[in-house]
Amino acid sequence: MLQITRVDILDGQTLDIELSNGHLILFDTQRLPEADHSYDSLRELEVLPRPNTDGRSVYWRDGPRIALEDILHWLSIQNNNK
């Protein structure tokens, strides 16, 4: 099963996510769905604090959690819209 092995922040807003298969995902948090207000606290920050991972998601202490499944889904939608 695919898991997150490492997560960090690039340029203050982009998640740098390393997966167990060796692939890297660069995910711009400004592209989080605006309809989902659980991410509003992230959108309001100029620079995101360093996130953590439990292997299945990216999360911030006392903050939102973003599941790997959701990230992969959003990336597939973006690729299909090109």
Biggest pleated sheet: 3 strands, antiparallel
- Low-pLDDT runs of 5+ residues are none
Succession of helices and strands = EEEHEEEH
Distance between the termini: 28 Å
How large a portion of the residues is in β-strands, by DSSP E?
Answer: 25-35%
Categorize the overall geometry: globular
Average predicted local confidence, pLDDT = 90
Q: Tally of extended strands?
A: 6
Number of domains: 1
Gyration radius over CA: 12 Å
* Count of DSSP-assigned helices: 2
The percent of residues in helical segments reads 10-25%
Q: Within the largest sheet, what's the order of strands? A: 1-2-3
What structural class results from the helix and strand content? alpha+beta
